[in-house]
Amino acid sequence: MLVADRNGFPVGQAWMDFRPEPGRVVPKVWAVRVLPECRGSGIGSRLMRELERCAWRKGCVELQLFVEKSNAQARRFYERLGWRIIGERSDSYSYVTPAGVRERVPQELWVFAKFRPPAPA
Ligand SMILES: CC(C)(COP(=O)(O)OP(=O)(O)OC[C@H]1O[C@@H](n2cnc3c(N)ncnc32)[C@H](O)[C@@H]1OP(=O)(O)O)[C@@H](O)C(=O)NCCC(=O)NCCS
């Protein structure tokens, strides 16, 4: 997990998950977020650049992440950083309300990938 630190305060984070999972053979990036009042000043881009550098240094050749189709801002953000849509996927998550009721939330996702750039000649 990378944390963006501004004057000793955590203002952003990005996670990379290397655990193998059925149907997934490349590391997955998730939980990329920056505090609302700190967005638009390059923190998210710096987190992603550092996370990618870290993955390529570890020998990864591809990274993937999922973006909700309704999140146009995140889609633009990743495309600007060179990520590309390689597919789509339906998923869901669930949580338990204070009243003890399990709620299921369906998700329609874009699958984004980024590949390790070729080493300079
Ligand atoms: C997506 C997210 C992580 C981006 O973080 P961020 O710190 O705002 O990212 P950046 O500042 O690097 O770039 C965001 C925008 O600010 C602009 N920007 C970058 N540096 C800038 C600067 N120095 N000054 C002004 N604007 C700048 C970029 O052009 C970019 O515009 P875009 O929306 O057209 O892509 C952030 O918006 C967020 O936490 N969103 C909610 C959670 C979320 O949706 N996460 C993704 C889930 S898949």
Low-confidence spans = none
User: What CATH architecture label applies?
Assistant: 3-Layer(aba) Sandwich
Q: How would you spell out the order of helices and strands?
A: EEEHEHEE
Could you please say which CATH topology applies here?
A: Aminopeptidase
Labels describing this entry:
alpha+beta, 2 helices, single chain, 121 residues, 45% strand, 6-stranded mixed sheet, Aminopeptidase, binds coenzyme A
Please tell me about this protein's structure.
By secondary structure, this protein is α+β, with helices and mostly antiparallel strands. It has one domain: Aminopeptidase. It has two helices and six strands, in the order βββαβαββ. A six-stranded mixed sheet has the order 1-2-3-4-6-5, with helices on one face. The radius of gyration is 16 Å and the shape is globular. The structure holds coenzyme A.
In short:
By secondary structure, this protein is an alpha+beta fold.
Record the SSE blueprint.
Layout: E1 2-6, E2 9-17, E3 28-34, H1 43-57, E4 62-68, H2 72-80, E5 84-96, E6 102-115
Parallel strand pairs: 3-4
Antiparallel strand pairs: 1-2, 2-3, 4-6, 5-6
The chain binds coenzyme A.
